Structure prediction request, 67 residues.
Amino acid sequence: MNYKDDFDYVLENGINFGKGGQKKNANEGKVKTKAKKKKYITGAHGSGSAMQKAKYRTNRANRHKGE
Prediction:
């Protein structure tokens, strides 16, 4: 196709700016982690690091509850 053919094609069919094209996998590029699971958030599995982080989370959640 030359420039004139492309121009005529656009005039006849228009340009689609929609969400067409390739569909991407929702999990592509994401790292699987256990850090968001309930046991890890509450520190219930016994890891010292997770228990400390759970303590920080509860302190942050309770920071403004007394007001």
